[in-house]
Amino acid sequence: MCGIFGVLSADPAVPLMMDALGRLEYRGYDSVGLATVFEGKLSRRRAAGKLSALQKLLEREPLQGLSGIGHTRWATHGPPTIENSHPHVAGRVAVVHNGIIENHAILRAELSAAGVTFESATDTEVVAHLLNRELLVGATPHEAMALVMPRLIGAFAFVVLIAGEEDLLLAARKASPLAIGIGDGVAYVGSDAVALAPLTRRIIYLDDGDWAELLRSRISVFDCHGVAVSRPEYLSTVSSGMMGKGNFRHFMEKEIYDQPEAIAHTLHAVIDPGTWIAALPAPLDNVNAVSKITILAAGTSFYAALTARYWFESIGGVACEVDLSSEFRERKAVLPDEGVVIAVSQSGESLDTLLALRHGKSFYQKTLALVNVPESSIARESDAILLTRAGPEFGVASTKAFTAQLTALLGLAIAFGWARGNIKDCDALRLITALEGVPSRIARALKDVSKYQKIVHDLLRVRDVFYLGRGLSYPIALEGALKLKEITYIHAEGYAAGEMKHGPIALIDEHALVILVAPSDGLFGKIASNMSEVRARGGRVILLTDAKGAEELGTAADHLVVLPDIQPEVSPILYAIPVQLLAYLTAVEKGTDVDQPRNLAKSVTVE
Ligand code: F6R
């Protein structure tokens, strides 16, 4: 992971780099550093911890220069110490890097045998030494890059700054994201368009294996054979106005409250609000030809995919399989002719999902990307794109992107099922009407959160938390447990409610808290039995349900959250809200770092 940034500016580089690193902190925040070239001399400052630690260091030891590179780290090789912080320097060369150089051990051994001593435990340092070695024997920076690039194996992006070169940055990418920004006599490079958004909207994306030479006046791109190539310039859709926290305490809180709007916008990307006709993107539009849909995703996006399987099967009338991106390549999946792969990813950059998508393509599957970032790698490598319109998501724990994914996937299933004749006009209309009603119900569910306070106190006291759900509520149970773990560090597990008796029930006693995701749908009776089983063993119960469910079982629960009535098929989108709020409010009460929880990063670009 990690965020990388480079600039050739007309103004002092450090303030620009610090701002950009702030925008990139969502990619990693365990250590940070930057380097500049000033009067030909390369200097760097590095700190363990977050950007604020580097800020303090720069106040004591400022850096001058109009050209620089910066890095915010999520450790892969070596702990987050100052020695392992980027930029890594060898002789005249400084490097910031995201991703993994897989053959670093071989390269390190070769360099060590030639007398090189290493300062850090990172894989990155080999790149700096390889480039410096070429410069030492007289290569130009261009020649050094052309010689070193073919030697690097892995998924990586890096930017190079060289002493004595105040109008030059070198940048390269292979599988990891990298965006080059074009300004007026200024050049930028960063991990994504978000880092560059306030600086420029003119973006060039490098292809896999490309590297680039940036001067203030010219950007030259070379392919993996070192041949000069031309890559198109895009106008980024990310704007700096989308990036603030407003009056909210955290990005996560803002993003929870953004959901009615995010869902409405996303819905209208699939369903025309004027005609109520749902449009199917390629390759799903040839409905009768599609033999099977395989949905690939990670983390929270995987839970959106799991929910969608219920929808594609029952509403779409099509065989649907869902797999974790990281596992998909590890098995011999049978992928039929005319199969469609849908890659679901907020960032569009999760390396596991990108590699799974490529694996699907190697089996001649047609591909659709469901992403929140139009310029992302997964979007660019898919046959077609369907955008969630959630707006940029900065909180590391995904919220609005998840409900936007659910909305888009249900919209797709309805359109698909209707076009294929699996559901009648009246069913399609009923479901679309139900979807249209979700934003207002979420707004109601968000109105008064004071009722959660007592539950939060219970959550902070228990040993284990179990989220249980059946059918469409099962993935929401999984999502609830993930949210709680991520930002409160409280142990939580999500289970299909019917599975509890097959093992987890052994853990139920007075120190366990069970959260039942239970709209009063056709499965409510079975959930009621699960609740009795928990109560009989001394477990405490929080019931998330509607007015009817509350009337039937409310008195038997220790805590009750009553949500607006909703059609069963769309209930997962609404029931995502209380599980997000429970995690968020508990984290705030506990005092954890909500937007930047320990060990995590927003965009996971390593395997
Ligand atoms: C959890 C969370 C992660 C992501 C996962 C996939 O709150 O945010 O589990 O869902 O890393 O990320 P994307 O959707 O960007 O591929």
TrEMBL record:
Enzyme class: transferase
Keywords: Aminotransferase, Cytoplasm, Glutamine amidotransferase, Repeat, Transferase
Catalytic activity: D-fructose 6-phosphate + L-glutamine = D-glucosamine 6-phosphate + L-glutamate
Species of origin: Candidatus Endolissoclinum faulkneri L5
InterPro entries cross-referenced by the UniProt entry: GATase_2_dom (IPR017932), GFAT (IPR005855), GFAT_N (IPR047084), GlmS/AgaS_SIS (IPR035466), GlmS/FrlB_SIS (IPR035490), Ntn_hydrolases_N (IPR029055), SIS_dom (IPR001347), SIS_dom_sf (IPR046348)
Protein name: Glutamine--fructose-6-phosphate aminotransferase [isomerizing]
One Pfam match: GATase_6
EC code: 2.6.1.16
Domain of life (superkingdom): Bacteria
PANTHER family: GLUCOSAMINE--FRUCTOSE-6-PHOSPHATE AMINOTRANSFERASE, ISOMERIZING, GLUTAMINE--FRUCTOSE-6-PHOSPHATE TRANSAMINASE (ISOMERIZING)
PROSITE patterns tied to this protein: GATASE_TYPE_2 (PS51278), SIS (PS51464)
Residues passing through the membrane, by range: none
Alphabetical list of Gene3D superfamilies matching this protein: Glucose-6-phosphate isomerase like protein, domain 1, Glutamine Phosphoribosylpyrophosphate, subunit 1, domain 1
Residues annotated as domain SIS: 280-424, 455-597
Domain Glutamine amidotransferase type-2: 2-217
Active site (catalytic residues): C2, K602
Keyword Transferase: yes
Localization of this protein: Cytoplasm
Assembly behavior: Homodimer.
